[in-house]
């Protein structure tokens, strides 16, 4: 989404040639494959654990860390892999989005007409809100200190 907006605002006349069907397919496929790999690693590690005791988690969604609390075996290796995996994926996405949005902001500042700058800013603001609605809850869920 950030790359699409970057091309639309930064290169409006060349957008259709740069954002071809092949580029869209490549972006969508790489996103699906990286997300599938990310989930497969966590799922495989979680399935190899032995479980005992209670079988209820205190969440309305199923996430790996609460499931690891139900395991009888040592889960430190799983927790480390999940932490690194989530850290790499989330940080990588965040850095790429921030870089593309900085480029978009620079492109908006180079627009000479106030009407063009206003239209581009509206599109840019709506996409920033979507990104914030995704990343801010993730920060509060995953980056808060654990209670011991």
Automatic annotation (TrEMBL):
| Domain of life (superkingdom) | Eukaryota
Name of protein: Olfactory receptor 10G9-like
Which segments constitute the G-protein coupled receptors family 1 profile domain? 1-148
Where are its TM segments located? 80-104, 124-143
Task: Read off the InterPro entries from this record.
Answer: GPCR_Rhodpsn_7TM (IPR017452), Olfact_rcpt (IPR000725)
Question: Where does the protein end up?
Answer: Cell membrane
Q: What is its main location?
A: membrane
The top of its lineage is: Eukaryota, Metazoa, Chordata, Craniata, Vertebrata
Record's keyword terms, sorted: Cell membrane, Membrane, Sensory transduction, Transducer, Transmembrane, Transmembrane helix
> Is the keyword Cell membrane assigned to this protein?
yes
Family annotation (PANTHER family): OLFACTORY RECEPTOR
* UniProt organism field: Galeopterus variegatus (Malayan flying lemur)
Membrane topology is: Multi-pass membrane protein
